[in-house]
């Protein structure tokens, strides 16, 4: 790949992904998705 | 290519909203796929949605930052930025053109016969303000007594949430009707205005208001793939400009932040002056000849 910025960003986002997985972001996201978002439907 | 893109849009929109049991169960999908974000704007309150909405997720992560208990590590939302960052770095705004269900809906709306208008260009900057103010600043700064912020983009504006989330939920849960108030009617008004504007102006919401498009556009100049312009083949017929749904001028500006990589311009160009592929390295600078006295 000829694009050093893209390579650097892909490495950065890989690190972010690993940080997210290890700090419970997946559970947070899953719990978020399991509840009905009242703001989205304009209630409350 | 145009037909193939339409097929992809249909398959992705249906495939990521494939929980068809919701009329029987009366609730939304709650399986493990909800830990993955959709690359487009697809409300996770939609009863059929299998994936989470990245914009809603970012706002909730940011909104919960100040409510983190002392001594515990905050959820930074790193995984959502990783999902979006990967997509942005690899393909820029291509998800807007190919994968976003609300983008697909706007494409269909623009096919309704009516007078068509072009967009006043300064309005394109509004989506960055929406991203900064409604998605980042308000959820972070406007918090309740417990320190929790709210997803203000979802609450105030998001037309995808109203169309794909609120209306189907209200259909299967009539008890929600008694809780509707000003917020809902505000969102319904925005939905009608945005859908009306999408009939008259191509991809109105994507170009003016979408915070996800604004985020992806930050990567437009460095994406791994790109639209390549071959100057020698161009006869300046402007068919690429006329075909572009987001008002780009592909023969003048490569890596435009407005380009959703729908590739209509590639189809429209009969002279093969536009090509889609991996970004090529810049040509080496020409060696300068130094004259000696």
TrEMBL record, chain B:
Q: Does the keyword Iron apply?
A: yes
UniProt key word Transmembrane helix? yes
- Single annotated GO MF: metal ion binding
Question: Transmembrane stretches, by residue range?
Answer: 7-29, 49-69, 81-105, 125-143, 152-172, 184-206
Domain of life, per UniProt, equals Bacteria
Which Pfam families does this UniProt record tie to the protein? Answer: Fer4_5
According to UniProt, the name of this protein is: 4Fe-4S binding protein
Taxonomic lineage is:
Bacteria, Pseudomonadati, Thermodesulfobacteriota, Desulfobaccia, Desulfobaccales
